[in-house]
Specification:
There is one protein chain. This protein is an alpha/beta fold. It has a domain of 35 residues. 23% of the residues lie in helices and 21% in strands. It is built from 2 helices and 8 strands. It has a 4-stranded mixed sheet, with no helix packed on it. It starts with 25 loop residues before the first helix and ends in a 5-residue tail after the last helix.
Length: 151
């Protein structure tokens, strides 16, 4: 006789709740999964916060910063999203991107932290242009790698 098929209670990547046969109040599980999917399909965050905003609007989200307090305590680097049911916390995965509205740029989750690719400093002055150009190109490549634009 074979072993019965067993299923996890949540999806493997983002921990979305799964339904079970005969489960009562399925709408709660489905709505929770849909809310999480809504937040993850195009993550756009308001910025980084260490304290919960006083008047969030449903659908707004933030990356929880270090030293977080209140409802954000213990949720560092997670995406905190406000919904009619309160705060939802999404644990990011390696390679996840979120558009940060406060700086008009994408953040990428890599190496257990959120990173923001910044533009390298433009070469200035000097008598050996080739050396400066090579340094600038190297910095551009490094910034593109950090931003997940190139590998």
């Amino acid at each position: 006789m074979t072993d019965p098929v067993s299923f996890s209670e949540t999806s493997p990547r983002f921990g979305l709740p799964l339904l079970f046969a005969g489960q009562s109040q399925k709408e709660i599980t489905v709505n929770e999964a849909l809310l999480s999917a809504d937040l993850l399909l195009h993550p756009a965050i308001e910025g980084t916060a260490t304290t919960p905003p006083s008047s969030p609007v449903a659908g707004q989200s933030w990356i929880v910063g270090a030293g977080a307090t209140g409802s954000f305590a213990g949720q560092v680097d997670k995406i905190a999203a406000w919904s009619e049911g309160g705060w939802r916390f999404i644990t990011p995965r390696e390679g996840m991107r979120a558009y940060d509205l406060s700086v008009s740029a994408h953040r990428i989750y890599a190496g257990s932290a959120w990173h923001l690719a910044t533009a390298p400093a433009a070469p200035t002055g000097g008598s050996t242009i080739d050396t400066q150009a090579r340094t600038a190109v190297t910095a551009i490549i490094a910034a593109l790698r950090t931003g997940g634009i190139i590998s």
